[in-house]
From TrEMBL:
Residues 1-16 have a biased composition (Basic residues). The keyword DNA-binding applies. It comes from Myxococcus fulvus. This is DNA-binding transcriptional regulator, LysR family. The keyword Transcription regulation applies. It holds the Pfam family HTH_1. Belongs to the LysR transcriptional regulatory family. GO terms for molecular function: DNA binding; DNA-binding transcription factor activity. Residues 35-92 form the HTH lysR-type domain. PROSITE patterns: HTH_LYSR. It comes from the Bacteria. Keywords: DNA-binding, Transcription, Transcription regulation.
Amino acid sequence: MHTARRKARAPRRPRAPRTPAPSPPAKPDLDLANINLNLAVALDALLTEGNVTRAAARVGITQSAMSHALRQLRELLGDALLIRGRGGMVRTPRAEQLAAPLHRGLLEVQRALRNESVFDPKASSRRFILATTDYFASALLPSLLELMDTEAPLVDLVVRPLVIPQIEAQLESGELDLVVGAYPEPSPVLRQQKLFTEHFVCVVRRDNSVVKQRLDLETFLRLPHVLMSPRGEGVGSVDIALEKLGRTRRIGVRLPYFLTAALAVTRTNHVLTAPRRLAELFVEPGNLRILPPPVELAPFDVLQVWHERFDDDPAHRWLRGMMLRAAAAPRSSR
């Protein structure tokens, strides 16, 4: 047998240590003296709106001027800031980090320049932003606007939809001044003040062929019901009360808006269980009547909520006082 000769292997050369890739040079700190404050305002609008056209309208400049500002900001910050996504423009991670502190900072600058140690509502042209539902807006805004017409003719009011998960951040940043509603979440940084206590009533068509002088439980359960449900699902206070009695009702329609829910009763035999102040808005001009519910329903408090940062702000205190007065304004008895 022949034995295969093995070739001698050359000794391995030691590998040279890898040279790490050079890190990109650190960008020098931005010199605020060389930055146009208008760029910060434009950036705030762009990150808020996520759209060049809407951001331009928000600031009051042309679309081309806003596009030019975006190009300058991208070069200044070394980041795209906004990129195209499936649903439109979306923020980059760097933009997400900038959005909240930038907005807070601009609000602080605005307040510092105002120097409103004393707030004069008759002379002020300040804009306040509230978040609430259509029910609370309908219940309070007529009285609030009536007071403002007389005492603060130049003050503007913006009402936005109530988005519960975002409330604390929006109140802290100043994006919202007040939240009005039945806000149950306690928070160490949010202040609450009761505006009024609300009670539930039943609303039926005046010529409802089934309901007589009173609404008993059996009739109540026999009729279809309207439920105000923002997401089109779930149950309400009535269903929880009925469950304790071992009973259920038929929910004929779920609607996302309080005002539409009241209108749904005007031409049908449906029953709507709703807050009294909402029901009173529709009884007089429509063909509806209010009846006590046949089940016991606990009342609830309607609150105004704000961030502790604005406890001592004179304009903010004035607004909260106006909300209290609007809530206490007399309503016609029915």
